[in-house]
Amino acid sequence: MGISTVDLVSYRIFGKWVESRIWEYLELSHKLVQARIGVPLEVYISRAYFVSILASLPLGMGVYMLMQDYFNLLLGSYSFLIIPFLSFLFGYMFFSVFLAYPSITARLRGRKIDIVMPHTVALMHALSKGSSNIINFFEIIGNNKEIYGEVSAEVKGALIETKIFHKDLKTALKNMAEDTPSESFKNFIESLSTIITSGSDIVAFFLAKSEQYRVKALNENKAFMDTLGLLSEVYVICFVAGPLFIIVLLVVLGLVGGTKYFLLLMIVYIWIPGGSLLFLVLLDTLAEGAGSGFIKIKESSKEGENLLIQKGIMRMQIYGFFKHPLKKLVEVPEKVLYFSIPIALIFFILTTYGYYNLEYNEMIYKIDDYIIFAVLIALIPYSLFVEAHFRRINQISREFPEFLNRLVSLHESGLTLAASIKRLTTSKLGVLTSEINKINTDIELKGNFAEAFQDFGKRVNTVAVQRFVILIENAIRMTGNIKDTLAIAASDATTARALEEERMSSTKMNVVVIYISFFVFLYVAWSLVTGFFPQLPEVPIASLENIAGEGIAFSGIDKPLYVRLFFHASVFGFFSGLVAGQMGEGDARLGLKHGIIMTAIAYLLFAFIT
Questions:
Q1: In the structure, how many helices (H) and strands (E) does the chain have?
Q2: CA–CA separation, 134 vs 149, rounded Å?
Q3: C-alpha 330: how far from its chain's center?
Q4: Sequence-distant (≥ 6) Cβ neighbours of residue 393 within 8 angstroms
Q5: Across the strands, what pairs with 294?
Q6: What is the pLDDT of residue 317?
């Protein structure tokens, strides 16, 4: 967040008053620092007051207008008096959200720091075997935010204090420990400061901490699996079973006591899709801080590189594109949307052009199916490339620890690193076999291990591989101890893979539960549409009163409307598919296949029964 025109206006209005009560918000000041929100405390609180007051009245009036009939039933002609209460309620809610936002952000940053701590400490352990300059370690971590996530942001504070403000390392570490939102990182930095001050064995310290965080990561992963299991049950109750029960209840009440269309519309078009999206955001905040997919490598042109070499590189890139035209789409699946979305829009416009002169309700019934077709046209190619994207990542992630473990074993047996890599060219390591051959060729031609591994990282640009490349590159430069560095890298990669496999195996049941709940929803919808609605007599309302008996008056039902509502509620199973992907495979994009399958099943079911 930055200071904007809204901040300037709000500070002019509320600034003096906020400053007179600033002592009430000292804890918020600390949370702003931990959340890395670059706004002064006085400005942030002034913004909270201004935006809350500005939004309160329109929201209060909007809710009153939407639910005016219900308020009239409760309060009669004085129902308008509830507007100030609603405005105050929404204003208070907005203000509370503003005050809670830094704490929530800080807590999320703390979790992301905890997740990458094992990898960060493993790097520092490897580098400490040849150097004890902590500032150099921090520079490497700070320059690789894609790999070390929020830890990079934390250490950059220490770098600024030591290099720009010329503070000593002990003071910088103390300030970093005070400002971090992670308790684990705080304890680590405080222990590191003590080790540096006392002059104890820093290599042994990093070794002990590396093992400690490895065990902690395994335990936290198990706790995370339990949390996901609980959340899957909450999702089914709140956004599948609960809405289904309420919809059925409202249908019956609509028959007996009058129309309930408004509540049905709210549940079908807001609660089900909106709640699922919010649930996705919640799950995403619990996911890993540093990504596990492909990352973009910053290309740096070498000094002395002439125009002829640059043209040669360009020709190689063009050749590579024509040789593997889909490679870039696999690495960045979102690029396929540049083609699929325009095609979907053109299809929708051409197929629905003749319906635009109809009345609104009739037009909606006509173009309904084409909206679904257009969405499928846009998302099916994207889903295929997403699956290819993560399939390649998973293959690399599965084979990479084995590659490192074999390399360590061969190197420890007495072979040189070059001889070990050459020996591995005959091994069967899946997608990495060709890359090992390229590494061997680079070493034979250039004789430079660091450059060979850098080129390997550019070709296989996943987070796990880049973590290894950064570690080995800096270890060669700073320590020269390749043997121990390879062992540390292998242990780190093996731990990361073990966590990933445990997570994937533990969350499969969550996906099954979501599928079962979706089919239950479809079964109830099918039963109502084919069994209940046809039994309702097609007679005038007055006759219905005589059939029902004294004391009960049926208000009638718009059957096509209710069928359409159930159809839309079933098609919105697409969002349940996204939740299944986020729960089961750690990324909502991997839930597209589930969402497409659920949408297609719902569409075919209603096409058959209607």
A1: 27, 0
A2: 18
A3: 19
A4: 292, 293, 294, 462
A5: 462
A6: 64
- In angstroms, the CA 541 to CA 317 distance is 73
The Cα-based distances of 83 to 50, 66, 72, 88, 157 in angstroms read: 19, 12, 12, 9, 48
CB 114 within 8 A of CB 106: no
To the nearest whole number, what is the mean pLDDT of the chain? 82
Which of residues 45 and 5 earns the better pLDDT score? 45
Weakest mean pLDDT among 328-332, 384-388, 436-440, 548-552: 548-552
Q: How far apart are CA 332 and CA 386, in angstroms?
A: 8
Please identify which residue in the block is written with the tokens 């540093």: 290
Rounded Cα distance between 468 and 482, Å, is 12
- 26 is written with which tokens? 């000292």
Integer Cα distance of 57 and 90 in angstroms:
8
Please state which of the ranges 176-180, 377-381, 507-511 shows the lowest mean pLDDT.
Answer: 507-511
The Cα–Cα gap between 582 and 227 comes to 13
pTM (2 d.p.): 0.79
Rounded Cα distance between 461 and 297, Å, is 7
The conformation of residue 479, written as its DSSP 8-state character, comes to T
- State residue 462 phi and psi, 5-degree precision: -95, 165
Over residues 526-550, mean pLDDT: 60
Given a cut of 90, is residue 390 above it in pLDDT?
no
Residue 148 C-alpha from the chain's centroid: 17
Burial (Cβ within 10 Å: 0-12, 13-18, ≥19) of residue 223: exposed
